[in-house]
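Translate structure to sequence.
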């Protein structure tokens, strides 16, 4: 049994693909993808039991077992897997799972964390700080794919817009210290500027996906960040 988890979903997805490709090449077997949000313990048992009943090689990939909405179905599956840990099972979660949750599993656990440089980069996004911003940007893209950093940048910018408009109360679900931090960062900008930068991000995303720019994503982000 293998447990893949962490906020760095690009790398965890690549590892999942690597593992499934290895299995298919070695066994020429079937890959069965299941969502823990949609199946019951009975469904999982049937998928696992069919491996031995049919004398067939299959790999079960179970997504979002430990993250997302907690349900009684998930709890039953987790309890079952603690005592019955099949070799041909990989769980994948796009969130970092508390070590206490998975410590009782006799499984190979692989965590994919976000580099600390990402958070330093996002915290540096204030007007007049362009030199430091660009330096941190180029440091960060050495540690993670530019596309993923762009996704995180756009997500962070949406939070800044919400915080500027609604204050900390618009950031429900976050720790209070983070609500305060993002709100203070948002207030360093005027709202029209935040909206303009986000509009530019949408344009960059469209141009990159449609190939309607001769510039690389790195070049476009360099220009964007220099305009803060």
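Result:
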């Amino acid at each position: 049994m293998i447990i893949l988890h962490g906020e760095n979903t690009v790398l965890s997805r690549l590892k999942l693909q690597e593992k499934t490709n290895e299995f298919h090449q070695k066994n020429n077997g079937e890959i069965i993808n299941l969502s823990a949000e949609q199946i019951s313990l009975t469904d999982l048992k049937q998928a696992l039991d069919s491996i031995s009943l049919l004398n067939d090689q299959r790999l079960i990939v179970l997504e979002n077992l430990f993250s997302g909405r907690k349900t009684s179905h998930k709890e039953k599956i987790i309890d079952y897997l603690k005592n019955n840990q099949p070799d041909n099972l990989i769980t994948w979660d796009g969130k970092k799972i508390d070590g206490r949750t998975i410590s009782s599993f006799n499984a190979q656990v692989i965590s994919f964390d976000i580099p600390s440089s990402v958070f330093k980069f996002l915290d540096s996004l204030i007007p007049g700080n362009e030199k430091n911003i660009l330096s941190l940007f180029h440091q960060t893209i050495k540690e993670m794919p530019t596309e993923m950093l762009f996704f995180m940048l756009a997500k962070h910018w949406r939070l800044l817009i919400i915080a500027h408009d609604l204050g900390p109360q618009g950031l429900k679900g976050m720790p209070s210290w983070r609500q305060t931090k993002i709100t203070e960062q948002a207030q360093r900008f005027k709202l029209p500027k935040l909206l303009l930068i986000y509009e530019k991000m949408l344009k960059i995303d469209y141009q990159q996906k449609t190939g309607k720019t001769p510039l690389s994503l790195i070049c476009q982000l360099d220009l964007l960040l220099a305009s803060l």
